[in-house]
Amino acid sequence: MKDILQRIAGLRRHWILLAGLACVFVAGVGSGVVLLESGLAGKVKARLIAPPAPVEPALGWVSQETSLQTIETLEIPLGNVDGVVDGGGLDAVGETVLFVTGLGRIGYLDLASGAIGYLESGVPMNFDALREHRAWDEIEFNRKVFRAHDILLQHRGGDLHALYVTHHHFQDSGQICTRLSRADVTITDGIPVAVSDFDTVYEIDPCIDLADVDYGFDGHMSGGRLHESDDGRLYLTVGDFGFGGKKNRNERVEAGAPGDLASLLLVDPDTGMVEVIAEGLRNAQGLEVDDQGRIWTTEHGPQGGDEVNLIKKGGNYGWPYVSLGFSYGEAGYPRIPLRWSVAQGRHDGYEKPVYAFVPSVATSQILAMPQASEAFGIWRGDLLVSSLMRQSLFRIRLDGDTAIYAEPIPMGGRIRDMIFLDDGRLALMRDDKTLVIVRDPETHEDDAADAVPFELSGFDEVEALEATLGNMVSENWGQDLFRWKCASCHALNGEAAVGPPLAGIVGSRIGATEGYPYSPALSQADGRWKLSRLRTYVIDPAGAGLGGSSMPPVSQLNRNQLNAIFRFLEEDAPQRTVED
After folding, report:
1. Is 407 helix (H, G, I), strand (E, B) or coil?
2. Tell me: the pLDDT tens digits for 217-266?
3. Could you tell me how far CA 110 lies from the centroid of its own chain?
4. Spatial contact of 561 and 418, defined as CB atoms under 8 Å apart
5. How confident is the model at residue 520 (pLDDT cuts 50, 70, 90)?
6. Is the preceding peptide bond at 574 cis, omega within 30 degrees of 0?
7. In terms of Cα–Cα distance, which of 152, 162, 200 is closest to 183?
8. Separation of alpha carbons 33 and 483, rounded Å
9. What are the two backbone dihedrals, phi and then psi, of residue 94, each rounded to the nearest 5 degrees?
10. Tens of pLDDT, residues 95-126
């Protein structure tokens, strides 16, 4: 027992280290971060350190109280092979969870054995051609939102499964198309193997011509959620890609929503035939069919007005003509009226949502608790809605088709997707590349009584994969990490912000910024910030002999990620212009 406790304690220190940087060194020095290195190995190999020593994390369950019952959560790192790109989705067969990352890499986790890994082949997105196109360097083009959206497994008999993925695909003509693609995989003893290449099942009409929209690609408004119908066809949500909300696209709204955009489709994967189920859905990233046959979607509204919709066949849910929200403000204005809405903030004349979140919570997936569920029995019949911005699950209590209330349940990160496992547990995929398993300790009491931590097998190979793929979205991964996770607290112009300035920190005197309220230990320290000392301080401030740090934690930083930040600060960040 003592050995187990020591091992858990050591791993807690390890994960605290990996979580140690959103705004680095608020009390003294720092840099923060999250995410990984990926991309063209030849271009970044010379700048990468050797892969870290093998690490096989052993992870424990954490108890959490909700208003009606206790739940337990287990957080499992999936490895960050996409850098700053979000997106992706997950599905499961038995104890095997498959997931697609934002850049189309297929990973798996066998919950029975703890084996984790990635398939050699990925989703065909034609990313290399996009990097060579003029759009890549246009400031209006957001590289982060070119991505995969969802994954779905369909059993074909024995060990064979059809693997469906929704994703963007770049055409050499300068268009980005949303595709539904399919490949065959076998899953044997929990391990998937691809047995065919991906074929295109359906391509959304229209594709987005980047020149037509001035390279302002709204790929985060693609929808792309999948759900299998009873007869084997696939429900597919399609977002509006910004139509109805952008000035240079309004002329296309006058003739109605263009093509498949802003709709819910039903696709026959064998024939390619498509049926439109509902229209007027701005960006539905959640899709569920409950045990009563009701279809539910969650929709990203504009500013305010995220919706939970009960879908009626042939129904029109109003976008872009009605919404409970407004357009996002700019140039000092908190909000902008919707151009096409006659009565701002109203939803008259179209199908109304069952529930709306005001202010917005950035809804993603939706699940319906089965009426006969043993796990989470007190939640039977409730809806679970996941959130990106609020980093929570919202449990919505229903009375028939009427929503009564929504309870937020914090989940520690932006939730991209979630599914039910066969035994009633929940599996959530967060944008920080973490899989969260949620269980009912009463239903899974045998598991709850098991004191042995969950152990991963093969995570050392995943970490090595992080270090060799490189970041395909940016030439400077460290700069991306700094921009997204550090810049809100630390400036690079020599001025203090929430935390001290970090420009030129490597080689500068410790506690040297005039007027910044350092801790006593830092303000009285001698010497300069060498990389080795900087790294030690980030990992263990007390161990560096410089006192503690009040820097807020972020999740899952490994050695590769830390070194990318340090290299940026040492080699590429603007240097101080004043004598230190």
Report:
1. strand
2. 999 999 999 999 999 999 999 999 988 655 555 555 665 557 899 999 99
3. 21
4. no
5. confident
6. no
7. 162
8. 9
9. 60, -125
10. 999 999 999 999 999 999 999 999 988 999 99
